[in-house]
Design a protein that fits this description.
The structure holds two protein chains of two kinds.
Chain A lengths: L1 H19 L10 E6 L14 H10 L4 E3 L6 E3 L2 E8 L2 E6 L13 H12 L14 E8 L2 E6 L6 H5 L8 H14 L7 E7 L3 E6 L15 E6 L3 H10 L4 E3 L3 H10 L2 E16 L15 H10 L2 H9 L29 H10 L6 E7 L3 H13 L2 E7 L2 H9 L5 E6 L11 H4 L11 H12 L3 H17 L3 E14 L2 E2 L14 E2 L1
Parallel strand pairs in A: 1-10, 13-14, 13-15
Antiparallel strand pairs in A: 2-3, 4-5, 5-7, 6-7, 8-9, 9-10, 11-16, 12-15, 12-16, 17-18
Helix pairs in contact in A: 1-6, 8-10, 14-15
Chain B lengths: L7 H4 L4 H7 L3 H11 L1 H18 L1 H4 L36 H37 L1 H16 L2 H12 L3 H11 L2 H15 L2 H8 L4 H37 L11 H9 L7 H28 L6
The chains are: A alpha+beta, B mainly alpha.
Chain lengths: ~500, ~300
């Protein structure tokens, strides 16, 4: 009884909010209202590292290649076809008759300009990994272009279908990243009509969109607002001034689904949560229990990952045993050593390692405080006493680079790149974020990363994964999922790569 | 000897001076004023209950406040259709809400008492010194008070905790070192008044040392003001701790703290408002009780200052 009255009062609240706000949303005005949780630093996708930036990038610009998110097949987008000339040279035949939103014609000059600009370290592209494998581009004729690689890089096609999008050379030379951020111009399915930095973005359908594998846009206008608070987003969804929210926490999404007025769709993402342990003994902890493989295995056995996935993450999240996301090329679950939830075994391993009463350690996290708390509680139960510290991502990353973190709950989204190198090679090749510093993993990964023979890559990623999980350098936890909540008159099928695709959204 | 009380007929004839002597003693007067002061009684009773709960938390709490059960998350409290297994429901990790509230009382009271004590010692020492000695000492203390008053407490606390990292010790230390301003201001003013009294002059005349005058003549006569400031600052410290914990910079999980509980419940506010309302209400009651007690003590101990 009381619960119903509660719901009613919420509904009343929502109604009053609806009265106060002009309702611009909905099918009638052909405008889809969407909320972003985080502020977008810059709409220029090369100077942005957030997920929201990726969404904008896919809507406003195109890459040479497109990967179908369902079949994972590579299709030509701005390029009609491509071929490897040798191990470090790719040649593209460009599609003709494409114009940018400002009327500029797309041709080889644009590709050459864009690639040469972003590949130059001095340009300061935010995520260097996305572009630093390219050396330069060379124009063969108006619609033929070659991209030269610095060294062998098998994942080139994947990167070209993802973060590397093509900019108009004349406009970009004049406007630069800051001009592009305020008045973005691309070839994509949507053009930007208004930008209030960090707050509000208006997109309009590109009527002249080329015959792209992304499909043709149908909804005329997209109105995106930054609303950091989830409760406010939900209230606006109730009041009708929003049509779609995403990245909604599992508990709220579940409640919204029960209400029946909204479609709640859930898709897995490539983001993997894991516990990083100071196996190399870089931190000032003395004695450092994590240098002992038995302690690291004990940590792996101590946590009931299934309970966390079933009750906290829910949706399509899964327990992960690999130091990479299983759909990634080379990420083989059968090569990984898996550890069951067995607190008794964890205690026995700790005792064997000389810690019968457990030990005390700092435990860092930067997101999902509740997951981290649940993990800490499992660790406490086997005697690992945690001194919990929640930091901002940038602060924790810096501390990690200095090697001062004994134990932390981290996550990695691989920039949605479907290749194991985007995760396992990022962390186990003796970089500043490598807590293990294991020579054997380094050797295997070096072979796997630079080989152009797929079978050899699979073999060596398998070896590395086996080594890393056998030594329990990490405790892989679970994969994340994203909830998409939208009005029932919106038709949308989310994809597993955590990118909102406005092009495939329709009114019912 | 006239037995006035045994012989009502003679009572009218009693000398007014004698009547005053025969009236209630100061102790009796104080007692009747205390009992007659509703706010004070309510404040003391509520606070006493809270203190008892905090001290005997392990005996009273129905569950271990740290025991998590992910299968039993966010069970509603009894009055919203829950079961008596968890009278106030469970939180987002399936921990018993009532037990966490009970243990949270320990954190709040501990922070309130210790922070108020630290700042009380600092502020009183500064205020009494400034008020008694005057001159250069007063100038320095007044300057320090002005400097301190120019700094917004919450911002400074936020900055310090952000640098040092949040923990119970850090929060107590930061609040203790920040909240002495009111002690210093009030103690300085009270000491200046008391300093001029005859009994202080008399003590000085018979050759009492300065520490002796401060401790036995000044302090007892400004203690009632001190008690009022202590209660105010206790309430202030408890609220600040809740605010810092709410912002994630105070007491760190899994330690139960009311501010942290409000913060953890915030995301589900729209669907499960009791997650926020219960710790919020308890925090409100505790701070109200402390303030009622402080107000009441001032009324009772120094009625002449009250219009």
């Amino acid at each position: 009884m009381k619960r119903t009255s509660l719901k009613l009062s919420i509904a009343a609240l929502a109604l009053s909010a609806a009265g106060a706000m002009p309702v611009l949303a909905d099918k009638a005005s052909d405008t889809l209202n969407v909320a972003f949780t985080k502020e977008l630093e810059n709409v220029d996708s090369y100077f942005n590292s957030s997920r929201e930036g990726v969404v904008m990038q896919r809507a406003v610009w195109d890459g040479l290649i497109y990967r179908d998110p369902v079949t994972n097949e590579y299709k030509g987008n701005l390029a009609e076809s491509w071929s490897w000339i040798d191990d470090t040279t790719l040649e593209f035949k460009l599609r003709q008759g494409i114009t940018f939103h400002n009327g500029e014609v797309f041709n080889a000059d644009d590709v050459v300009y864009t690639v040469n600009f972003v590949a130059d370290e001095k340009s300061g592209v935010k995520t260097q990994r996305n572009v630093n494998w390219m050396k330069s581009a060379e124009k063969i004729d108006d619609y033929t272009v070659r991209i030269h690689l610095k060294e062998k890089f098998p994942a080139a096609i994947e990167f070209l279908s993802g973060p590397v999008s093509m900019y108009p050379n004349e406009y970009y030379a004049e406007a630069g990243p800051s001009g592009m951020g305020l008045k973005p111009v691309g070839t994509g399915p949507y053009k930007v009509t208004e930008v209030i930095p960090g707050q509000h973005f208006k997109l309009e359908k590109n009527e002249n969109y080329h015959d792209s594998p992304k499909g043709q846009p149908t909804i005329s206008k997209i109105d995106i607002r930054t609303i950091p608070d989830v409760n406010t987003q939900i209230a606006e969804l109730f009041s009708g001034s929003l049509d779609m929210i995403w990245q909604t926490p599992a508990d709220q999404a579940e409640k919204l689904a029960q209400m029946g007025n909204f479609t709640v769709a859930n898709e897995s993402t490539m983001r993997v949560g894991y516990l990083a342990m100071d196996a190399a003994g870089r931190s000032s902890m003395d004695p450092n229990p994590f240098t002992d493989v038995r302690v690291r295995r004990a940590v792996n056995h101590a946590i009931d990952r299934k309970a966390i996935v079933d009750n906290l993450l829910k949706g399509s999240s899964k327990v992960i045993n690999t130091p990479c996301f299983p759909s990634q090329f080379g990420c083989q679950e059968d090569k990984a050593v898996s550890y069951d939830y067995d607190p008794e075994k964890a205690k026995a391993l700790l005792a064997e390692a000389g810690y019968p009463d457990g030990f005390k350690t700092e435990f860092y996290a930067y997101r999902n405080r509740d997951y981290a708390e649940a993990i800490a509680s499992y660790l406490n139960a086997v005697g690992i006493d945690t001194d919990f510290k929640m930091l901002q991502y940038s602060a924790l990353r810096e501390l990690n680079m200095k090697g001062e973190v004994p134990l932390s709950f981290m996550t990695w989204g691989s920039y949605s790149i479907n290749d194991a190198s985007a995760m396992v090679s990022q962390f186990f090749k003796h970089g500043s974020l490598d807590d293990a510093r294991d020579d054997q993993a380094l050797a295997d990964l070096t072979v796997a990363d630079s080989s152009t023979n797929p079978d050899e890559r699979i073999e060596y990623y398998g070896k590395a994964i086996n080594r890393i999980t056998d030594q329990a350098f990490w405790a892989p936890m679970f994969s994340y999922n994203t909830n998409y909540v939208f009005k029932t008159d919106v038709d949308y099928q989310p994809t597993p790569d955590e990118v909102l695709r406005f092009t495939t959204m329709k009114w019912k | 000897m006239t037995h006035a009380d045994s012989d009502p007929a003679n009572a009218i004839e009693i000398d007014p001076l004698l009547q005053e002597v025969m009236g209630p003693t100061p102790g009796q007067l104080l007692r009747s004023r205390i009992v007659g002061h509703q706010g004070l009684v309510i404040g003391v009773v509520v606070l006493t209950i809270m203190v008892i709960i905090a001290i005997f938390a392990p005996l009273i709490a129905p569950h271990d406040p740290y025991a998590q059960s992910l299968m039993a998350r966010m069970k509603p409290p009894v009055f919203l259709g829950g079961t008596w297994e968890h009278p106030l429901g469970t939180d987002h990790l399936g921990r018993d809400y009532l037990s966490r509230l009970i243990y949270g009382a320990r954190v709040s009271l501990l922070i309130g008492v210790i922070a108020a004590t630290i700042s009380g010692v600092i502020g009183t020492a500064m205020g009494v010194a400034a008020g008694y000695f005057g001159g250069k000492v007063d100038a320095v203390v007044t300057f320090l008070i002005n400097v301190r008053l120019a700094m917004p407490v919450v911002l400074v606390a936020l900055a310090v905790v952000a640098i040092l990292g949040g923990s119970l010790t850090v929060v107590i230390a930061v609040l203790g070192l920040l909240l002495w301003d009111r002690f210093a201001v009030v103690m300085r003013a009270s000491t200046r008044q008391v300093r001029e009294r005859e009994y202080v002059a008399a003590a000085r005349a018979i050759g009492a040392s300065t520490p002796r005058i401060l401790l036995t003549e000044i302090m007892p006569n400004i203690a009632n003001n001190l008690i009022v400031v202590v209660t105010l600052e206790m309430a202030h410290a408890i609220l600040l701790e809740a605010a810092l914990s709410f912002l994630g910079l105070g007491v760190q999980p899994p330690t139960p703290s009311w501010g942290l509980m409000v913060s953890e419940g915030k995301n589900m506010m729209l669907f499960e408002p009791w997650l926020v309302l219960i710790p919020g209400a308890v925090l409100f009651i505790l701070v109200l009780a402390i303030n009622l007690m402080g107000d009441g003590l001032r009324d009772v101990t120094a009625p002449e200052n009250r219009s």
